[in-house]
Amino acid sequence: MAAAGRLRGEGCCIISPVHGNPWSLAVVVGAAFLAGMVNSVAGGGTLLSFPALVWAGRDPLFANATNTIALWPGSLGGFLGHRREMKGAGRFAAALVGPSLLGGIAGAVLLLETPSELFSALVPWLILGATLLLAAQEPVSRFARRLGADGRGAAWWIGGVAFQFLVGVYGGYFGAGIGILMLAALGLLGLDDIHQMNGVKNLLALSINGVAAIYFIACRAVLWSDALPMAAAAVLGGFAGAALARRLGRTVVRRFAVGAGFFMAASLFLRSLG
Fold first, then answer.
1. Which residues in the chain belong to E strands, given as ranges?
2. How far apart are alpha carbons 42 and 134 in whole angstroms?
3. What's the pLDDT at 172?
4. Which residues of the chain have pLDDT under 50?
5. How many beta carbons lie within 10 A of that of residue 143, not counting itself?
6. What is the pLDDT of residues 201-210, one digit of tens each?
7. Dist CA 172 CA 68 (whole Å)
8. SS3 for 274?
9. In the structure, how many helices (H) and strands (E) does the chain have?
10. Do 141 and 194 touch, CB atoms closer than 8 A?
11. Which among 182, 190, 181, 186 is positioned nearest to 153, based on CA atoms?
12. How many C-beta neighbours within 10 Å does residue 113 have?
């Protein structure tokens, strides 16, 4: 793994770039393409692209920041493609955008303040946790809709907003699986239409990842030689995902992402033992 230096200054970490070889770049670009496909259908693409960066020899901190930048255009596309589904859910979006932005920037700052060795040790656990979240997506979605069926009072709104802030912190710090968590937050607030929930979820994910991306760019934490081709590949993968969904369906794609996540987590656990 190439060495990386960190300097403190002007309110954030200034991080020197890390360069990879063409073969490792091909691996991470291919993973980004698959991640774009999976995200457009079922979510969980980070479980493919982020571990690929780590396996290609990138420092996990750089890899996480770079992955956020690379997949953000796909989040924008997902939001624009589902913006009609937000009709009638404006008050939920208005209540949760603020805590999403605050949580996202807090998580991004926390990430760059985490020692690289500590984050490297956390990576297998983060991937395993996100994989378990993705595996539980369907029951969580059903539970969230049941929560929203009767509507909730002020206490539930406070709880939902606070929970969304914590989701934002996690999203800015790592991010995989935030969609499932946000469905739970929306259920707490009384939203029970799954199409509206998905529309608001896309806006909130765009907010969390967007503010984190701005911070990572300002702190020079992004490996642009990886991020730019990965972003292009992820967008192309997103378009291909529509055809994949028609052929295989969301359930098959989600199971693929879950299987890949468990494999990546297990392999990184074994790698850390070696």
1. 6-9, 12-15
2. 9
3. 93
4. 1-10, 16, 149
5. 14
6. 878 888 998 9
7. 9
8. coil
9. 11, 2
10. yes
11. 190
12. 10
The answer to whether residues 85 and 198 touch, using CB atoms and an 8 Å cutoff, is: yes
Query: DSSP assignment, residue 44?
Result: -
Q: Report the amino acid identity of residue 123.
A: V
pTM: 0.78
Place of tokens 């914590």: 166
Scan for tokens 């994989």, then name that residue.
131
Tell whether the torsion through CA atoms of 255, 65, 164 and 114 is positive or negative: positive
Contacts of 66 (CB under 8 A, 6+ apart): 53, 58, 221, 222, 223, 226, 227, 230
Query: Strand, coil or helix: what is 133?
Result: helix
The widest CA-to-CA distance across the chain, in whole angstroms, is 56
Q: Is residue 110 left, alpha or beta, with left meaning phi > 0 and alpha meaning psi from -120 to 50? A: alpha
Q: Are 91 and 188 in contact (CB under 8 A)?
A: no
Distance of alpha carbon 18 from alpha carbon 25, whole angstroms: 12
Instruction: Quote the CA–CA distance of 71 and 50 in Å, as a whole number.
Output: 10
CA distance 215 to 42: 27
Strands 12-15 and 6-9 come out as antiparallel
Q: What is the DSSP letter of 189?
A: T
Q: List beta partners, residue 7.
A: 14
Which residue bears the tokens 């979605």?
141
Residue with tokens 């999403």: 100
* Tokens representing residue 186 in the block: 């929306």
